Amino acid sequence: MKPFAYVNAANEKDAVAALGKEFEKAVPIGGGQDLLARMKDYVTQPDRVVNVKNLDATVARAGGGLRIGSAMRMVDVAEHADIARMYPAVAAAAVEVGTPQIRNQGTVGGNINQRPRCWYYRNEEFICYKKGGNRCFSPQGENQFHAIFGSGPSYIVHPSSLAVPFVAYDATFRLLSPRGERMIKAADYFTMPTTENVARENVLEPDELLTHVILPPPGNVKSGHYEVRYKTSHDWPIAFATVLLAMNGSTVQSARVVMGAVAPVPWRSKQAEQALAGKPITAETAAAAAEAALTGAEPLSQNAYKVQVAKTAVERAILQAAGLPIT
Amino acid sequence: MLNQLTAESQCYGGVIGSLNFALYEDRILDRRTGQMVNPNMEWYLLAGMSDVPQIDVRLKNMPERGVVGIGEPPTVPTAAAVALAVRNAIGVTVRSLPLTPAKILQTLQQKA
Fold it and tell me: Under a CB-based contact definition with an 8 Å cutoff, are residues A188 and A211 in contact?
């Protein structure tokens, strides 16, 4: 990797002061589970790396919800009693990330801000849009793991497991920069690629740090989270979903259906939510909602199977939320 | 059998290798440039701890055969056995390895 300067930030203000204006030239490091690999492969070549491992990694009760420091390790998220009780889908997502070693080192902030796994992006030989090039190689190339939603210019799937339940639970991210703090809803944090803005996956400025995830009071929702992955050990999910159900007696008052690994951002399906509203949860209504969730899917040449897998993930997350058996 | 432990270990290894052959390993080349897009442990899938099943090795000692090797026999037909088991389970034949979710679902869809 390219030689770099290392800054040990004592607090969030110092950390932010050490970042810079240019994209990926001065970058924060949490567990380094993604950053170090990118640096070794020359995908990301910062001049300066800012250690943020010692920043806030706590969970605090805040206004009926929780405030999670982004330096918190994934293993701690997976094992935290309050998170498991109040936001079960977050704990369920955290526990399936990577391997135990990765979860021991990786942080919440790192999981949210990790860069895509696309093998064209990660391969030095292919200069794609995200590296300043003028094309995306996936549509005419090997796209079995790429997006089924969105019509480019980039077809990556967002790799973060936590992003999906955070969007579902309506989390807010606290971002800190030299200009002060700003609070961005998780749903607004992740950005679809456009011809003007294809290099980034979110609104984080280069001199900004994601310091906290604030989860609002969960209310009386039932949570479901279902991931489909090929290998059990150490594999990325093919598709996954978080479903939240607010019930009115035995029927659904309102729902949240968010899918992961299917689009450049966590993909919320209002069609699926509408298909559930006012209905009781049965095998039939779950299947119908799952069908609705994939409305508008535009598979590429080799990833049509993801449509079926995503449907299954949504259907099973709904059944899980409702406490029904998955058959 | 010259050494039972070694012979059984060879079988475990051969079966695991063949499971990988049947299910996971795939050298994926970008169809336009020929570049391998998965030259790494991330996407050149290999079975991990949770992916390897219980393997039962039964060996019959046949000293009349003399000294023969044991590396290949567990490795070659196991992949075929897995492929046939998949065919038995889903009712269609997938004719290429590895038997990925994409291939299985695609084959099932074509049949439908």
Answer: no
User: DSSP string of B7-28?
Assistant: HHHHHHHHHHHHHHHHHT----
- Give the single-character DSSP code of A202: B
Whether A152 contacts A136, CB under 8 Å: yes
pLDDT digits (tens, 9 = 90+) for B37-80: 999 999 999 999 999 999 999 999 999 999 988 989 999 999 99
A322: enclosing H helix or E strand:
none
Question: How close does chain A come to B67, measured CA to CA in Å?
Answer: 38
Which pLDDT belongs to residue A104? 98
Contact A123 B35 (CB under 8 A): yes
pLDDT computed for residue A327 by the predictor: 77
Q: What is the CA radius of gyration of chain B?
A: 17
d(CA A272, CA A279): 12
Closest to B37 (Cβ–Cβ): which among A142, A303, A305? A142
- Would the CB atoms of A232 and B50 count as touching at under 8 Å? yes
Cβ distance B37 to A231 less than 8 Å, yes or no, reads: no
Query: Can you point out the beta strands (E) in chain A?
Result: 5-8, 26-29, 48-51, 59-62, 65-69, 172-177, 180-185, 209-215, 221-229, 237-248, 251-260, 267-268
DSSP secondary structure code for residue A217 in this structure: P
- Enter the pTM of the model: 0.96
pLDDT of residue A250: 95
Tens of pLDDT along A49-69? 999 999 999 999 999 999 999
The nearest alpha carbon in chain B to A144 belongs to B102
Residue pair A54/A16 in contact by the 8 Å Cβ criterion: no
Q: What percent of chain B has pLDDT over 90?
A: 91
A231 contacts on B by Cβ (under 8 Å): 24, 45, 47-48, 50-51
